Amino acid sequence: MKPGFTLQVCVIGAGLAGLACAVAASAQGARVEVLDERPTLSAHPTHVNVVPNLLRDLVTLGVAQECVRAGFPYRGIRVLDGSGRTCFELPTPRLAPAGYPEALGMAHADLTHILARAAQERGVALQMQTRVETLVWRQGKAVLGLSGGRERVPDLILLATGARSPLRLAALGCSPAPSCLGPDWTYAQLPRPPGLDHAMLVLDSGGQRAFVVPIGPSAVGIALTRGEDARAMPPVLQPLLAHLTPATPRVERPLLAGLLPAPWHRGALVCVGECAHALPPHFGQSAAQALEDAVVLKALLAQGLAPTALAQRFTERRHARASQVYDIVTDAARSQVSPNEATDLHDLFHRLSSLVAEPA
Ligand SMILES: Cc1cc2nc3c(=O)[nH]c(=O)nc-3n(C[C@H](O)[C@H](O)[C@H](O)COP(=O)(O)OP(=O)(O)OC[C@H]3O[C@@H](n4cnc5c(N)ncnc54)[C@H](O)[C@@H]3O)c2cc1C
């Protein structure tokens, strides 16, 4: 791009992917606007498992220190059976620089607000209650039609609207629906029992699954199957689940998976986050892959590529790696829905760890 030229970037969607990309693009000197149809940023009562590769990428985006302050550092994930016996431990190698923890748990809303604040501090215009109603192509350029009849024709569009947005069809002419891998999971935040300072994955022989991670001195985040009946959960979870009452704020989320086939771009528009790769929550890669998109975007912008070349390079760099992560994580999700002796969770975890140990 010519010296002195300021790239105009429009990000559609203020979820983790859109906000992280806004942070990345503004850090590279772009003028960035984020549009979201919701009245406020998402504040659902869930957690993010900040796995080692996600923490490394938060460092690259310049927001890791705030995340560490807001969250609860932990080391290793204990895998327990329903009676509370530790079967094995999944390691969390340090991928962030010295001085940072290996991994942490934090509230989803805290990560969202940290990214939004960082974006705004770098000059990003965050426009809530602004729905992109239409996307049409005029002379090779995407034209966005906003609620209220306004139009935008930015230099670069990042489509961060999630896995089920009709805009993706308008953008690419193809929008496969994500597959449902199993029953909904329930997410909630509960009081942290004294001494629960590690993450744990409970795999009960009856088929119940739960992941628990501390997210602060007084709270844990929990994701579990069969949340409608806490009494059916394994004994090891009972003290914690005594706090999960009908009044507890919670979110039911379908176990979805969907990988958009390449190309993820057309012209100077590119899909990021769940719009390109919707992952089940296993192994904490859902948010981690969204943040990887932002880190790659930052690196490509630093190369000064023209928007169409950048969009193409983005697909080239992200599609193969996200596909590998997707295959491993969906195998893990399927094996937990229909336990299969041939699927070794330990092996899948190690394959994933060695894959994401290298930056994208
Ligand atoms: C309940 C829940 C729990 C989760 N728990 C975890 C977890 O524990 N660990 C983890 O790693 N990940 C978790 N995730 C997933 C993680 O939040 C996502 O992977 C990550 O946020 C990336 O999503 P995204 O930004 O691509 O899409 P989304 O978060 O879906 O954001 C899309 C945004 O686009 C906006 N939008 C859509 N269409 C339009 C339009 N036409 N105009 C304007 N705006 C539009 C929406 O309002 C929304 O804000 C969870 C997600 C949910 C919903």
Report on the structure:
This protein has 360 residues and is α+β, with helices and mostly antiparallel strands. It has one domain: FAD/NAD(P)-binding domain (3-Layer(bba) Sandwich). The protein has nine helices and 20 strands. α7 (285-302) runs antiparallel to α8 and α8 (307-337) packs antiparallel against α9. The longest helix is centred in the last third of the chain and has 31 residues, at 307-337. The protein is globular, with a radius of gyration of 20 Å. The protein binds flavin-adenine dinucleotide. The site of flavin-adenine dinucleotide has 36 residues, from α1, β3, β17 and α7.
Q: Which features characterize this protein?
A:
360 residues; alpha+beta; 20 strands; binds flavin-adenine dinucleotide; FAD/NAD(P)-binding domain; eight-stranded mixed sheet; six-stranded mixed sheet; 32% helix
Write the layout of secondary structure elements.
Layout: E1 8-12, H1 16-27, E2 31-35, E3 47-50, H2 52-60, H3 64-70, E4 72-74, E5 77-80, E6 86-90, E7 103-107, H4 108-121, E8 125-127, E9 132-138, E10 141-146, E11 151-152, E12 156-159, H5 166-172, E13 179-191, E14 199-203, E15 209-216, E16 219-225, H6 238-241, E17 250-259, E18 265-266, E19 269-271, E20 277-278, H7 285-302, H8 307-337, H9 345-356
Parallel strand pairs: 1-2, 1-12, 2-8, 5-14, 12-19
Antiparallel strand pairs: 3-7, 4-7, 5-6, 9-10, 10-11, 13-16, 13-17, 14-15, 15-16, 17-20, 18-19
The structure holds flavin-adenine dinucleotide.
Flavin-adenine dinucleotide binds next to helix 1, strand 3, strand 17 and helix 7.
